[in-house]
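Thread amino acids onto this structure.
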């Protein structure tokens, strides 16, 4: 008999299952909203409803420049970012009610970016649990969550269900 999954694993598995709906060729992200042990909503990253997604119309890339520390000096790095998709966390907030979010937990496959973290910080949730780290915004997002008294946990040892982990290209 297999051991019963703990709640964190159970809900993060659901976030990864939600991510399989994404048509983004760069990153599949899923998120779920939970209060207690009750599932209140699921979401994934993708284009707005009724609009061609990246698999149909291609990525809508913009170029950005980022200052990064390399050894003892700062370097400017050019990056591309797709702006066609709405992030999973943003979709989760759009399709759930504020009263449901009060005191709830968000399980998300990837650590939220700065924009999503800002939105989540104002959403009424009290905890974020994620698996994959997003190094670009990690420090400032952790600081924000600490300032807002939002529990912010990485499940680094978590293993996603077979067949749901997409290759990350950015």
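Threaded sequence (170 positions):
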């Amino acid at each position: 008999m297999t051991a019963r999954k703990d709640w964190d694993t159970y809900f993060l598995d659901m976030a990864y299952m939600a991510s399989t709906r994404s048509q983004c060729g760069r990153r599949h992200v899923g998120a779920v909203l939970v209060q207690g042990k009750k599932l209140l909503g699921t979401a994934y990253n993708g284009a707005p409803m009724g609009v061609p997604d990246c698999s149909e119309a291609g990525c809508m890339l913009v170029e950005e420049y980022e200052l990064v520390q390399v050894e003892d000096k700062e370097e400017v790095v050019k990056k591309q970012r797709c702006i066609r998709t709405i992030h999973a966390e943003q979709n989760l907030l759009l399709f759930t009610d504020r009263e449901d979010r009060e005191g709830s937990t968000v399980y998300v496959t990837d650590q939220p970016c700065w924009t999503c973290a800002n939105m989540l910080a104002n959403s009424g949730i009290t905890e974020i649990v994620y698996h994959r780290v997003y190094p670009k915004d990690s420090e400032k997002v952790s600081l924000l969550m600490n300032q807002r008294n939002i529990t912010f946990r990485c499940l680094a040892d978590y293993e996603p269900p077979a067949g749901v982990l997409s290759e990350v290209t950015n």
